[in-house]
């Protein structure tokens, strides 16, 4: 994936021309309820379990393994959040899609299904194809229609802060949450410029609590397995490593606040079938390893409320 992205960046910079792309969606809404009201809205008598699916590009295949392990253990989330690649996992999970359908969907997706190369001074990937693909896979036309409460995180460049999206077209929300700056053409929503939510919230643990979760599982596929940069790395690789370090430093407090943090020990570099399956297995094994912690956290929360 790194080689593909590098070639695309070089191609776009060499061509240097611009085409008009309209990624204006005004349907995405951030909740204006207070934290207390939001928690009351989603509160149940049993401890509420939330999953925060983190960003990480092609590493997102690890989320499938995590979901598989939780399903086998009969552990189900009451609320989910997602950012960037994790927004895809969150939407599919919240839509009520059964696991076999989810597995088939993820295993069969090709880069050509979700990437639409364009020539623009604002980016070289439009993003609309990703949006259309998401909408073709789920039955709901709005996030509020999903059986599990969901929030997706984007970065609002205009207001210089992160934004939780709980209402709007699922594809539009995923596109906004996944629009990597410089690569994807940004999304405009109600006059604001939205880009990848992972800039400020690589794993949206705190937002999951704001949606009412008592116990939060954070799934980090990006920060927990960084390899130390070597002296012979290219300038582009050093740039990506620096960007990754900055993003993870900004997200440290959020990561550390998770009740259970799942960090698969695998740094996926391509979308080859072998790497994809290895990533899924890494997510599966990492989730299996913390199942006792999840059960203990849920039990402890239940006892504390008696």
UniProtKB/TrEMBL annotation:
It comes from the Bacteria. The active site is at residues 84, 196. Residues 51-209 form the PNPLA domain. Transmembrane segments: none annotated. A motif (GXGXXG) lies at residues 55-60. The keyword Hydrolase applies. A motif (DGA/G) lies at residues 196-198. Keywords: Hydrolase, Lipid degradation, Lipid metabolism. InterPro entries: Acyl_Trfase/lysoPLipase, NTE, PNPLA_dom. A motif (GXSXG) lies at residues 82-86. PANTHER family: NEUROPATHY TARGET ESTERASE/SWISS CHEESE D.MELANOGASTER, NTE FAMILY PROTEIN RSSA. This is Patatin-like phospholipase family protein. It comes from Vibrio olivae.
């Amino acid at each position: 994936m790194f080689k593909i992205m590098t070639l695309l960046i070089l191609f776009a910079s060499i061509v240097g021309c611009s085409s008009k792309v309209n990624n204006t969606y005004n349907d995405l809404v951030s909740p204006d309820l207070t934290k207390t009201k939001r928690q009351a809205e989603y509160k149940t008598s049993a401890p509420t379990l939330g999953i925060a699916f983190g960003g990480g590009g092609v590493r997102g295949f690890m989320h499938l393994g995590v979901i598989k392990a939780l399903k086998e253990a009969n552990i189900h989330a009451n609320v989910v959040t997602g950012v960037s690649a994790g927004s895809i996992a969150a939407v599919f999970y919240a839509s009520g899609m059964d696991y076999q359908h989810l597995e088939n969907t993820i295993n069969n997706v090709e880069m050509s299904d979700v990437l639409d190369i364009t020539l623009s001074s604002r980016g070289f990937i439009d993003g609309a194809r990703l949006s259309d693909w998401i909408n073709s896979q789920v039955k709901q036309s709005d996030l509020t229609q999903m059986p599990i409460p969901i929030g997706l995180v984007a970065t609002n460049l205009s207001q210089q802060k992160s934004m939780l999206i709980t209402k709007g077209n699922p594809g539009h929300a995923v596109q906004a949450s996944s629009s990597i700056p410089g690569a994807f053409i940004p999304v405009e929503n109600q006059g604001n410029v939205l880009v990848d939510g992972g800039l400020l919230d690589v794993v949206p643990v705190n937002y999951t609590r704001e949606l009412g979760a008592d116990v939060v599982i954070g799934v980090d596929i990006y920060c927990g397995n960084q390899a130390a940069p070597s002296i012979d790395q290219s300038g582009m690789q050093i740039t990506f490593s620096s960007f990754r370090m900055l993003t993870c430093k900004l997200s440290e407090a959020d990561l550390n606040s998770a009740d259970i943090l799942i960090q698969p020990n695998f740094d996926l570099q391509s979308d080859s079938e072998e790497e994809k399956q290895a990533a899924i297995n890494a997510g599966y094994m990492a989730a299996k390893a913390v199942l006792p912690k999840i059960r203990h956290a849920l039990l402890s929360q239940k006892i504390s409320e008696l």
